[in-house]
Amino acid sequence: METAEHFSLALHGGAGTITRAMLTPQMDQEYRAALQQALTAGYEILNGGGSALAAVETAVVVLEDNPLFNAGRGAVFNKHGKHEMDAAIMCGINLEAGAVTGVRNVRNPILLASHILYHSDHVFLSYPGAEEFARKQGLAFEPDDYFNTHQRFEQWQQLRDSDVFRLDHSHDKKFGTVGAVARDKAGNLAAATSTGGMTNKNYNRIGDTPIIGAGTYANNRTCAISCTGHGEYFIRNVVAYDISCLMEYKGLSLADASSLVVNGKLKEQGGEGGLVAVARNGEVAMPFNSEGMYRAAWVQGQAPVVAIYKD
């Protein structure tokens, strides 16, 4: 039931071939702890009466700062041994949004996206111009070494002399994007997503994460969505907006609309991935068509959920 005090938060840390056999007990525990840390940070803001925008921004910052995830500090290497990061954030109240692509040394790309939303007349900034704006806003920058984790370097070394790009950072498919969605006590929705993209990507490739309506979307009339997966498919199908439209124009529930797109349209085309979503009534959905998705959710009055595998 929708009430003025009902709030929810859901987040993800990537989807793909994630099975129990792939993760050691220690890695399983580390991922769960990281998801719980981000979930708690966002939930505390909502519980204190903070906005959905503040909650998703905070949750994503926590995930960006954790090298386990392909965003911020844990971003993968591109073809030239650099880190190109994308992010987007959107407000469901007025459809205002901020997005950024191709930034290299910004510590928290989601904060840059947020500053674009709040402090510019634009929605989407890219490459050097986005970094110039970040400097004017006083955002933190870090040297390359901050982002150069051993695991990501080893993954890049396997591909650097080839023309192969990897949808993931292991031999199996793993789409390393992070994101969060929330409904606050006032009933407002917000979504935020951040990624380091594909290992060994070339030509300044851009995925769905910073594209409003594809990988990130929020509208108080329907839902807030943050996607993770093979970005090309999410772009072609305008996934996040499609789910919102199914709810607004066909009257589908969040669960039915998101399942139709993720387990129907995307799967039929070979598009692998998933998403986290929250509806205007606080309902949460976390569908995915891959073997696993790092995910967590906390609905007011219920126990928090942290999960990784399909079963």
What layout of secondary structure does this protein have?
Blueprint: E1 8-16, H1 25-47, H2 52-64, E2 85-91, E3 97-103, H3 109-119, E4 124-126, H4 127-136, H5 144-147, H6 150-157, E5 174-175, E6 177-183, E7 189-195, E8 216-218, E9 223-229, H7 231-236, H8 239-250, H9 254-269, E10 273-279, E11 284-285, E12 292-299, E13 305-309
Parallel strand pairs: 3-4
Antiparallel strand pairs: 1-5, 1-6, 1-12, 2-3, 2-7, 6-7, 8-9, 9-10, 10-11, 12-13
Description:
The chain has 311 residues and is α+β, with helices and mostly antiparallel strands. It has a single domain, classed as Glutamine Phosphoribosylpyrophosphate, subunit 1, domain 1 (4-Layer Sandwich). It is 33% helix and 24% strand. The protein contains 9 helices and 13 strands. Strands 1, 2, 3, 4, 5, 6, 7, 12 and 13 form a 9-stranded mixed β-sheet that branches. A 4-stranded antiparallel β-sheet has the order 8-9-10-11. Strand 12 and strand 13 form a beta hairpin. Helix 8 crosses helix 9. The longest helix is centred in the first third of the chain and has 23 residues, at 25-47. InterPro entries: Ntn_hydrolases_N, Peptidase_T2. Keywords: Autocatalytic cleavage, Hydrolase, Protease. One of its GO terms (biological process) is proteolysis. It comes from Rufibacter radiotolerans.
